[in-house]
Amino acid sequence: MEEMNRSQEKKQAEELTYQKKSYYDGASEETMDAIFKYASGYAAFLDKAKTEREAVVEGIKMAEKAGYTPYIFGEKLEAGARRYYNNRGKNLFLIRKGTAPLEKDGIRIMAAHIDSPRIDLKQNPLYEDSQMAFFKTHYYGGLRKYQWLAIPLAIHGTVVLQNGEAVNICIGEEDADPVFYINDLLPHLAREQSTKPMATAVSGESLNILIGGIPCKDEDVSDRIKYHVLEYLFEKYHIKEVDFQSAELCVVPAFKARDVGFDRAFIGAYGHDDRVCAYPAMTAMFENADEAHTILTILADKEETGSDGNTGMQCRLLLDIIEDLARLDGVSGAAVRAASKCLSADVNAAYDPNYAEVFEKRNAAMISCGAVMSKFTGSGGKSSTNDASAEFVGEIRRMFAEDSIVWQTAELGKVDIGGGGTVAKYIANLNIDTVDMGVPVISMHAPYEVISKADLYALYRAFAAFCRLD
Ligand code: MN
Ligand code: MN
């Protein structure tokens, strides 16, 4: 009798309390297979899509395979129509029209970003000094400069020539390719530098890329190593020095995505933030057979620099597309927006016991404990955030419960210790219920970030539930 009471008590305690648990803990063989299989597809995507331009190219390939065709403004979409809109090669919209009336059901939006912190070339980058040729750079997004020194780097991007032709460049990814490099100081001579705060120890202007060291044959020209590089660029790509003026060349880590750990629980890669949300949003949309809801996946550019510009989330293109869909259905765009729901798909920081002092453990994202919802982001007193309503979080929670989604809530670090934002507020500002949903990341914004395969798969399942359920 007493035994029974004890087990009843235990059951009641389980029901009344909330505890996070690793998705891996007790997962069936079938679930483990699904987690690992999904992760390998994602890793392959990562290696092909290191910049927003490449992510758009890969996204379109995947969309076309799933039957998507280009969206044209002014075209009325029938239920089941699948379209993509390529905004300047850096921002992609994927649209699938549902059967439910737009003004009542709204649009289910998933918004991720496909730009990642990196190092951009300046518009007049090439010079030589002391038997070495370099590119001058200006870093992109919030990065810790010291992490980018002394690692293999690749150059990706586009150069628009005088005649208007765009030349795409990708060097440093194949095994036979050369890589590029930012020099670091040897410890023997770093005594003074080592006493400086990390934020100032490496200056932005010292992030110069080592690109060559052999002089050209012609002894009459000045800067013979620089000239030799130009000879190579002209021969291979028809690029002249002046063409850098109309170029977007990005320096990214030359690393490939790899499993991390003896048990391969994690994936290490460049640019999980935010392709770890972009890929699940796309695949959840493509693989979902249910046709009721109209689904819109947005892969935005410029999130890491504030979402400004005509490929960023603050561009009114989203509004234009919603207005267009509404007008052609003969309904009010305002009504469609008011009925719409959005998962702003972005990462959060995984709790790291090595840096426990910056986290509040009860409200931090625990690695492998599932997709992470951030009701609010921002910093210092919830400044500059979309704070999703309890009602909307409740709605999403019910959806996730229906599909047994493994998820958790978290905020980014301790109160007043820092903070960060996402695209959520820009979508919420359009009168759309929005909440952040993503994956916990270890070493966010580092050249090599780490995520858990379990969290990736949990997010994919969460997005699939959002696309399908009422
Ligand atoms: Mn992000
Ligand atoms: Mn970021």
Overview of this protein structure:
This protein has 470 residues and is of the alpha/beta class. It folds into two domains: 301 residues, Aminopeptidase (3-Layer(aba) Sandwich); 136 residues, Aminopeptidase i, Domain 2 (Roll). It has a nine-stranded mixed beta sheet, sandwiched between helices. Helix 3 runs parallel beside helix 7. The longest helix is centred in the first third of the chain and has 20 residues. The model has no long low-confidence stretch (mean pLDDT 97). The structure holds manganese (II) ion (MN) (2 copies). One manganese (II) ion binds next to helix 7. The site of one manganese (II) ion has 3 residues, from loops.
Label this structure with key terms.
single chain, 470 residues, alpha/beta, Aminopeptidase, Aminopeptidase i, Domain 2, 2 domains, nine-stranded mixed β-sheet, seven-stranded antiparallel β-sheet, 12 helices, 23 strands, globular, binds manganese (II) ion
